[in-house]
Amino acid sequence: MSSMDDGQYFYHPLENIEDVELFYEAVERNHLTKAISPERPYTYWTIELYDQKNGIRGGGGLGVLAADTRRVAEKMNIPFALITPFYPYETHQTIDGDAVRDNHVPVDYKDFGFKFIDTVNVKCCDNLCRLDVIEKRFKNTRIIAITEPNFGELYSGMSGSDHRLYQEVALGFGGYAALKLLGLKPAIMQLNEVATFFAALARLDELARNGMDFYEAVVYTRKHTLYTNHTLVQAAEAEFSQEQFERFVFPNLKSLAVKKWLADKFTDGRIKLSSVTIEIAELRSGVSKLHARVANYRDIAGNKVKFKAVTNGIDMDTWALPEIMEFYRSFGILDEYNMPSGDYAEKIENLSSGEIRDLKKAGRKVLNDILKERPDHNGRVLEFGNDDFIFDFKRRFVDYKRPELPFRDPVRLRNILERHNAHYVIAGRVHAGDKTMREKLRKLLDVVSTDDYLRGHVHYIPDYDEKLAYGLSVGSNAAINVPIVGLEACGTSWMKDVANLNFLISTHDGGVADASANSYLNVSGVDEEEELDMLYQRMEEALIASENDFDLEYILQQQLKAYLPVISGSRMLKDYLDYLFPA
């Protein structure tokens, strides 16, 4: 037993995934900790939330992960507050010819069940900026958001721009003020990426200005702050000038000691948010085993920073077909908390080819229903038969994920698809400022348009969102996940494929590398040419295996055995609690 803040901690860490009884007893008694309570929740800070059901549309995996984490906390009965901006505009993408167009659509939080609480203020550029505090509650969890009419859309402007800094300052100082307004005190502050740094800075400032010795305030803040990094390269993190901080940050600090502490963090008039976030958080986590091992981050003194590995997970009830979840539970593979049972690996062997095919038929129907309202880039409304094999690429359209890789040899790709009458579906959002990937998408679609067979069997579906992601997860047959090895921190799209009994064709990177490369259809090679050859081989293997009962069962059973513990969102949250509250 150990203490946390002024409460006693009653949560015991699990030695392994089979040791679940004590954990569940603690959950049922609401005795995870006296420090975690409705008044002292686990606070989770994110610049992005992707939760369309609750009216907030994000930009990618970070936002989806945030929504999943809150849902898992609700199932596990953990008092949990997610703090995020509500952007008054959401971005939709369309195809105009072969060009991607962004459309910014206004949204109103009142349409999604959020309740207005009050207003708080932040100071920026000699102005007092008023922010609305809105809230939506779900049993023991809640979403607390700050918003204002000119807040703009998610990721507007460059990462080091004034507007981006304003959004981040508003989330940090405004979000922390919102907690105080609601009478909440964080038991822990989990900062997802460096854009949320200012929340911890606001807490440090409050402690220091209320009479706590400055160095004690620093220690207290550090011990109660977890920085979760979702990227591998520090150079990609945001950087701001001291002049920008003078206009947007320092006016919100009341403690002279905190102002001096922060001013000392600048080098040549610049500050990198990752470095200062490392300084304010003693607890640091990476989002996969590989990420925690290879992430190259250094503190202000130049020392390499160590990260605790807590691999991301998904809320399986959200992302897996209900019929598949029923199968997992009825055979005792998953329990009521979606944790793998002690003998889950043995029970997975009950999964037969006939059941797999029936479950995939059910998923295909869901996909076809979604596609009725989602025409492809040629304006075609797609409907796939139960015997049609679908490969998909459904993830952010960024360079290191290599969405164009299978199209490097269009003749070979066409031959593979044509031999088996297969289809290839592409879905993914291109960031507004990413001219490189917009051009790569244009060239990819040009390749498709010049080949009669590919034109009828390769489909790009614009405006990728949660609904389409779900449909492809449950209705496709094989997922293509080929990031350049060493650049993917975790990824979660592939987790949804494993849960939904799809073949995983992937490089050994991110969270996929948590298990052996023999656990799935691995793509590897000494160079990209070898990787491409292996990718085509693996696509052929998946097509052939889908027609053979033994191979179908074996490959999908091996994937589930290896990855069911990895993809479990309940396992993820348990790992965080183990790290935050060690016995």
Automatic annotation (TrEMBL):
<comment type="similarity">
    <text>Belongs to the glycogen phosphorylase family.</text>
</comment>
<dbReference type="InterPro" id="IPR000811">
    <property type="entry name" value="Glyco_trans_35"/>
</dbReference>
<keyword id="KW-0328">Glycosyltransferase</keyword>
<dbReference type="GO" id="GO:0004645">
    <property type="term" value="F:1,4-alpha-oligoglucan phosphorylase activity"/>
</dbReference>
<keyword id="KW-0808">Transferase</keyword>
<dbReference type="Pfam" id="PF00343">
    <property type="entry name" value="Phosphorylase"/>
</dbReference>
<protein>
    <submittedName>
        <fullName>Glycogen phosphorylase</fullName>
        <ecNumber>2.4.1.1</ecNumber>
    </submittedName>
</protein>
<dbReference type="InterPro" id="IPR052182">
    <property type="entry name" value="Glycogen/Maltodextrin_Phosph"/>
</dbReference>
